[in-house]
TrEMBL record:
PANTHER family recorded: CELL CYCLE PROTEIN, PEPTIDOGLYCAN GLYCOSYLTRANSFERASE FTSW-RELATED
GO molecular function per UniProt: lipid-linked peptidoglycan transporter activity; peptidoglycan glycosyltransferase activity
Biased composition (Basic and acidic residues): 504-520
Name of the featured protein: Probable peptidoglycan glycosyltransferase FtsW
Annotated gene: ftsW
Pfam families listed in its UniProt record: FTSW_RODA_SPOVE
Keywords: Cell cycle, Cell division, Cell membrane, Cell shape, Cell wall biogenesis/degradation, Glycosyltransferase, Membrane, Peptidoglycan synthesis, Transferase, Transmembrane, Transmembrane helix
Source species: Lolliginicoccus lacisalsi
Domain of life according to the entry: Bacteria
Classification of source organism: Bacteria, Bacillati, Actinomycetota, Actinomycetes, Mycobacteriales
Regions of compositional bias (Low complexity) in chain numbering: 455-471
Amino acid sequence: MTAQRSAQPGVIGAASARFGAWLNRPMASFHLVLSISALLSILGLVMVLSASSVSEYTRSGSAYSMFIRQMMFVSVGWIAFYLALRFPVRFIKRTAFVGVVVSTVLLALVLVPGIGVTVNGARSWFQFAGFAFQPSEMAKIALALWGAVLLGERAVRTRSSRDMLFPLVPGALIIFTLVALQPDFSTLVVLFFILLALLWFAGLPLGYFVVGVGAILSIAVVMAFAEGYRTRRLTSFLNADDDPLGASYQARQSQFALADGGFFGTSLGQSRAKWKFLPEAHNDFIFAIIGEELGFVGAAAVIGLFGLFIYTGLRIAARSVDPFLRLFVATSTVWVIGQTFINLGYVVGLLPVTGLQLPLISAGGTSAVLTLFMFGIIANAARHEPEAIAAAHVAARRSRVPRFLRLPLPEKYHPPRPAPRRPDPYAGGAGLPMHDDPWDTMPSVPGPYRGGGQPMAAPGRGGAARAPRYPDYLHGDHRYGPAVPGNGASPGRRYPGGGRAPHRPVDPRQRDPYYREPPRGRSTRGY
């Protein structure tokens, strides 16, 4: 018995050491993203089948209709995941602005009567051929990509707060206004999360966040009391017993379902809340069905998967060299976790009901496809970690898996050169003609500078010999030789490598140990 107890810490220590060694592998982040995406997708399909079987059998006569539709959308989402994994990073950067323009146009079109479809009081959907599309879900990923491109490029070139705020904030406000006109308050909250995360990870000063969060809270209070159903939701959250069969009905039934689950649950498919006791059991309140059928263990496993996603996203963001990938991965992590926190919060009664879905688990076609597309970009960023790039180039020659998947090799990131703060007359370029060096056109003179003549005497004090007098072919005579740029002066701006620019020839007189700068005020006009 004692031997078993002494051996147990060793087994746990060996397992943790093995897991730590696996995490140190170059492709660990990529494998983590794949595993989390697959587990959440499979769990979501199973729970959608269980939660929707009763309602779908009543509606269409088949218990599998919602499951089949969701499986189709998840399949399309994994195709989008694969495409995002194949896209070069430079292609994603070039198309980010196009994506935000298209999503803005779609948000405007959905407000037109006859084009947009109203569902649950919000005109947020396009419907055609039996399928529905929600453009606000596209706006989330479009805003995250466009903001990461803008702030990623400006983070290298400038640290100005004005450049961080413009044009990102005005463009985001246009999207916010269109979403508020639908009205879709829950999506608006997620878009605020995305904007704040972009600016936070870009390094915007804290004072701007104090003002911005204050303005957001003020707008939220106004919007909460602007519509009657939002006011009823807020009052039912504050006083749940006032209307148990009305505005508080969903929240109370979800808590009853969680209480029935206990520690191990009632087993898969044996929920009682899905028998039309809990509305939207397959969508907004699917976590209550998970807690009822799988118990505390299943609910904790779901929360653990999202916790692992937090670790993976921040790990990829910390290891990424490209500022665009670093900002997008960190922002997407905040987006997914913020949406998850709100969904779990109103299911367990900590927040008022808002109608946000649980990512990759709740039923929803547009959300599943675009969330998996976003996960694919995160996996693409994981392949662009410095160690992963080297490992991918080695695996391309030794392994058949990359050749079978036809994944392009990740490219090394080359940072752009920072823009100069002031024009350099020797740098050339448009509007700055290249100046000829004075030594190229100056005739030879006697003395130690161009060969021939007597060597220069060392200057000194107290009657020491001075340098001989030479004619100045540029600006007249002075005592110590031609007055040309750089005669004895400091080299000025340093270039990479510590020397002058490659196109500026080194003044040969700087190599003379006895040469000194001419005294100020003596024939130095023009400098």
